[in-house]
From TrEMBL:
Protein's organism: Aminobacter carboxidus
Highest taxon listed in the record's lineage: Bacteria
Family annotation (Pfam families): CheW (PF01584)
InterPro entries per UniProt: CheW, CheW-like_dom_sf, CheW-lke_dom
Official protein name in the record: Chemotaxis protein CheW
Domain (CheW-like): residue spans on this chain: 8-148
Amino acid sequence: MIKHDNSSRELIAFRIGEQEFCVDIMSVREIRGWAPATVLPKSPPYVRGVINLRGAILPIVDLAARLGFQPPEPTVRHVIMVAQVGTQVVGLLVDAVSDILSVTDDAIKPTPDVASDMAKTFVRGVLAIEGRMISLIALDNVLPTLEPIAA
């Protein structure tokens, strides 16, 4: 396989606690302020609930809880990144969006072997940029699997 090291991609960086993460900007549809979510019964602990987004029901995934961090108590400073993976649209609760990064594929280093299997499931790679360590999130592994609801 030929790898083109000069192919560039844009990533959107965000914070959860003291950690920085990023996702491909093409999967982010919009960024909006925090709005309280309506809790759904029997949903996974990392699903905050749902909000009404212009008539569509949008599930909100607490990315801190999903990645195994202490979930925050959301404030007006928190934001929801509306992301699409395949046909699924979901809101990702994060502390703040920091910036947009333009990186080449060779800047993304593999997840270290010492990382847990759980970390390798969620993190595609790591970027070292301007003294910052930013983990590239595998959104398709972060989103909850949709199970049919028993009637």
